[in-house]
Amino acid sequence: MNYIGSKYRLSDFIKKTVYSVAGHDLSGKVFCDLFAGTGIVGRSFKEEVKQVISNDLEYYSYVLNQNYIGNHQPFEYLHYLEMLNQLEGCAGFIFEEYSENGRAGRLYFSEANGQKADAVRRQIETWHREAAITGPEYYFLLASLLESADKIANTASVYGAYLKHLKKSAQKPLTIAPALFAPTKQEHRVFNEDSNELIKSIEGDILYLDPPYNARQYGANYHLLNTIARYDRFTPAGKTGLRPYKRSEYCSRQTVLQSFEALIQQAAFRYIFISYNNEGLLSETHLRQLLSRYGRYDLFTTRYNRFRADKTVNRQHKADATTEYLFVLEKT
Q1: Which of 71, 99, 195, 315 could anchor a disulfide with 95, C-beta 3.0 to 4.6 Å?
Q2: Helices (H), the chain
Q3: Residue 225 belongs to a domain
């Protein structure tokens, strides 16, 4: 998925830094990814650590991480995908509110893909309700639908707006592809909670924090993924069909510093790693002063091309580059 703040291309930088601080043998350590997003960082450590704890406030993220992190034992899935891909579309909530020729006139999906998404989502829920699939299978199928629908969405990567005309990729038929996860012997834990509340009840060895850097609210930018994941009934608001969402205190200048401090103070982890950048609401000085009060502080940096929804822009232009920070705290 094209995702704001994705650490996919930074995962090597993050892993090398973690190794240099916490050691290369992580087999006895508990790793927590507290603002997990699509789960890229937790997934990169899943096979190396004793346990991954994954959390995110957004429900679509919870679904993805229940699959990629929570699922750890393989199962047969091809017959489910074959049945889903053979379904005829139906005029449901996604079609009516978010698709071409739906009653709301929102062009997030083509008519056929909106109806297919409704049919697939209904079938997954029916199987789940009738106990025809297990919990792990349920999240696997939901994650597969979310990622497959995202690939043919008529947007410039995020769901804050849709395009006026169907782009080429949005005209392709929705096909459910498997969201394959890495099997492990060890079990993992996945949460859908406010990070500042969850931190009070968990503990481990390595805490990785990747909170929002700026005023962008993920609940607004990815609202349609939450709607597909929950498949609940509500009255979509405004031109984009926004659903109610909880605003993150990490997206506000008025609350971000105190939220950070409360989190660091409560964290029962020896090593804390924080991804941030030079365009965030907090400066490097703010975070250095905060972290230095709680133990041994260090900072690692790398140059990185920022997220751009417009992929036609030359990302090598100097104006597109930013400095990615990885703050390190060893609590004492």
Answers
A1: 99
A2: 11-22, 40-45, 59-65, 78-85, 93-98, 111-129, 135-151, 195-198, 218-221, 223-230, 256-266, 284-292
A3: yes
Q: What is the CA radius of gyration of the chain?
A: 20
Tally of domains in the chain: 2
Q: Are residues 190 and 207 in the same domain?
A: yes
**Mean pLDDT value of segment 32-61:** 98
Residue linked to tokens 């909106």: 114
Determine how many CB atoms are found less than 10 A away from the CB of residue 281: 20
Half-sphere exposure of 237 toward its Cβ, with a 13 Å CA cutoff?
Answer: 7
pLDDT at 320: 66
Taking alpha carbons only, the member of 54, 64, 53, 13 closest to residue 29 is 53
**pLDDT tens, residue by residue, 66-114:** 999 999 999 999 999 999 999 999 999 999 999 999 999 999 999 999 9
The answer to the question of residue 254 being in a domain is no
Does residue 252 sit within a domain? Answer: no
Q: What's the full length of the chain, in residues?
A: 332
pLDDT given for residue 307 in this prediction: 55
Look-up of token digits 């140059």? 303
* Residues in Cβ contact with 114 at an 8 Å cutoff, skipping those fewer than 6 apart: 89, 94, 95, 98, 99, 100, 102, 108
- Cα–Cα dist 249/255, whole Å: 5
Residues with Cβ within 8 Å of residue 42, at least 6 apart in sequence:
31, 33, 36, 52, 54, 65, 68, 69, 208
Residue 114, CA distances (Å) to 127, 153, 202 in order: 20, 10, 40
Q: Which amino acid is at 103?
A: R
The boundaries of the domain holding residue 235 are 73-180+216-247
